[in-house]
C-alpha cells in the first residue's frame, strides 16, 4: 500500500505540475522548473511501476503517459510563447519645449525627469513662439508666470497657430494650471508632482493616450508653384468626401478662414456640395480655411491637402492611394 500511495502521489504531482506550466505559458509567463519536476517524476514512475500484468496496477502506465505527455505539451507551448513574444516597442524620444523662467529648475527637470528626450529651454513667451515657429516640436511644457507675461497667452496662441503641438501646464500653483487648462492645455502636471511627468507625456504623445492621425495628400504639381489641375482637384475633393463618409459626416463646420470673407463665416455649416466648392477655391489659392466635424478636420496647404482624425480611416486612404493615385504621407499627430 505504501508503494501504491507513493506512485499515486508521483502521478498526481506530474499531472498537476505540468498543468500549472501550461496555464503559466498561456498567460505569457516564463516557464519555470515545474515541468522539469513533473518530467522527472513521470520518468521515475515509469521505471518503478510494475508492468500491468497485475490488474491492480493497470491504471499506472496511462497516468504516467498522461503526465509525460503534459510535460511535452507544456514545454512546446512555453517555447512557442517565448518565440512569438514580441519585444517591447522602442518609444522614440520626444522633442520638448520647456517654457520656464527659472534656469536652475529648468536644468534640473531636463537632466533628471526628461533625460530621455530632446529638451529646449526658453524663459519667455516671445522666445517660445520663435522656437515653435522655427523648430519641429512634439510637446510644450508651459509655466504660468513667465518673463514677459502669463503662460495662458502662449497656450491660446499655440492652439490657433500650432495645432500639432501638445500643451502641458506645469505651474506650481493650482490656479496657474487651471488658467492654462482653460486656455486650452491638454494636460497639467504640478511642479510638486514632476516625478509623474512621464505618465503625462505618455498620454499626450503621438503614440500615447491622445492618439490621432494626420495625413498629407500630395499634389503632383507641388514643385511647379501652380494651383492644382482640374483633374487633380477632382481627386482631392473626392478624397475629402470619402473621409467624410468614413466619419459619417454629412457636413463640415468652418473653424477658421483667411482672409475674412463675406461668403464664409466661422461656425458656418457646409453641406457636401458647399464643401466641394470651398476645397476647390482653396486649391485655386483664393482662400484658406479649416473645416471640422467631430474628430475630422480638413484644410488645404499651399502644396498639400491635410486630413486630421482621431482614428484611422483605412477605406478612404486606400481609395486615395489606389483609385485616385494620390501620394499619401502619414504624420504623427498628438491631438487637438
- Strand runs, count: 14
Distinct helical segment count: 11
Largest sheet: 7 strands, antiparallel
Number of domains: 3
SSE string, helices as H and strands as E:
HHHEHEHEEEHEHEHEHEEHEEEHE
The mean pLDDT is 75
Q: Which structural class fits the helix and strand makeup?
A: alpha/beta
Task: Produce a short descriptive summary.
By secondary structure, the chain is an alpha/beta fold.
List keywords for this structure.
3 domains, 14 strands, seven-stranded antiparallel β-sheet, Rossmann fold, 336 residues, disordered C terminus, alpha/beta
Write structural notes for this entry.
The protein has 336 residues and is of the alpha/beta class. The protein has three domains: 2-84; 95-204, 3-Layer(aba) Sandwich (Rossmann fold); 213-332, no CATH class. It has eleven helices and 14 strands. A seven-stranded antiparallel beta sheet has the order 10-9-11-12-13-8-14. Strands 2-1-3-6-7 form a five-stranded parallel beta sheet, with helices on both faces. It has a two-stranded antiparallel sheet with strand order 4-5. The longest helix is centred in the first third of the chain and has 25 residues, at 2-26.
Topology:
Elements: H1 2-26, H2 34-48, H3 60-84, E1 95-99, H4 103-112, E2 118-122, H5 125-134, E3 139-142, E4 145-146, E5 149-150, H6 151-161, E6 166-169, H7 174-183, E7 187-188, H8 197-204, E8 213-218, H9 230-246, E9 251-258, E10 269-271, H10 272-283, E11 288-293, E12 296-300, E13 304-309, H11 314-323, E14 327-332
Parallel strand pairs: 1-2, 1-3, 3-6, 6-7
Antiparallel strand pairs: 4-5, 8-13, 8-14, 9-10, 9-11, 11-12, 12-13
Amino acid at each position: 500500500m505504501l508503494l501504491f500511495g507513493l506512485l499515486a502521489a508521483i502521478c498526481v504531482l506530474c499531472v498537476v505540475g505540468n498543468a500549472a506550466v501550461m496555464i503559466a505559458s498561456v498567460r505569457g509567463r516564463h516557464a519555470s522548473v515545474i515541468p522539469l519536476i513533473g518530467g522527472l517524476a513521470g520518468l521515475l514512475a515509469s521505471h518503478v511501476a510494475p508492468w500491468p500484468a497485475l490488474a491492480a496496477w493497470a491504471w499506472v502506465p496511462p497516468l504516467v503517459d498522461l503526465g509525460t505527455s503534459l510535460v511535452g505539451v507544456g514545454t512546446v507551448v512555453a517555447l512557442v510563447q517565448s518565440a512569438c513574444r514580441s519585444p517591447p516597442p522602442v518609444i522614440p524620444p520626444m522633442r520638448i519645449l520647456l517654457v520656464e523662467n527659472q534656469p536652475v529648475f529648468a536644468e534640473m527637470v531636463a537632466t533628471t525627469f526628461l533625460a530621455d528626450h530632446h529638451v529646449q529651454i526658453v524663459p519667455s513667451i516671445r522666445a517660445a513662439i520663435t522656437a515653435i515657429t522655427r523648430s519641429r516640436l512634439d510637446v510644450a511644457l508651459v509655466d504660468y508666470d513667465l518673463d514677459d507675461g502669463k503662460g495662458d497667452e502662449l497656450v491660446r496662441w499655440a492652439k490657433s497657430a500650432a495645432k500639432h503641438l501638445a500643451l502641458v501646464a506645469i505651474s506650481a500653483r493650482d490656479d496657474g494650471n487651471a488658467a492654462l487648462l482653460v486656455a486650452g492645455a491638454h494636460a497639467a502636471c504640478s511642479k510638486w508632482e514632476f516625478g509623474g511627468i512621464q505618465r503625462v507625456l505618455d498620454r499626450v504623445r503621438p503614440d500615447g493616450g491622445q492618439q490621432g492621425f494626420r495625413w498629407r495628400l500630395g499634389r503632383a504639381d507641388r514643385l511647379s508653384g501652380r494651383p492644382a489641375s482640374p483633374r487633380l482637384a477632382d481627386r482631392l475633393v473626392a478624397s475629402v468626401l470619402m473621409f467624410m463618409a468614413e466619419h459619417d459626416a454629412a457636413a463640415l463646420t468652418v473653424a477658421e478662414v483667411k482672409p475674412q470673407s463675406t461668403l464664409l463665416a466661422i461656425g458656418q455649416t457646409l453641406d457636401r456640395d458647399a464643401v466641394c466648392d470651398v476645397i476647390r477655391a482653396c486649391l485655386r489659392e483664393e482662400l484658406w480655411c479649416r473645416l471640422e466635424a467631430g474628430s475630422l478636420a480638413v484644410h488645404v496647404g499651399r502644396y498639400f491637402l491635410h486630413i486630421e482624425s482621431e482614428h484611422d480611416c483605412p477605406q478612404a486612404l486606400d481609395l486615395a492611394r489606389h483609385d485616385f493615385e494620390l501620394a499619401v504621407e502619414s504624420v504623427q499627430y498628438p491631438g487637438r
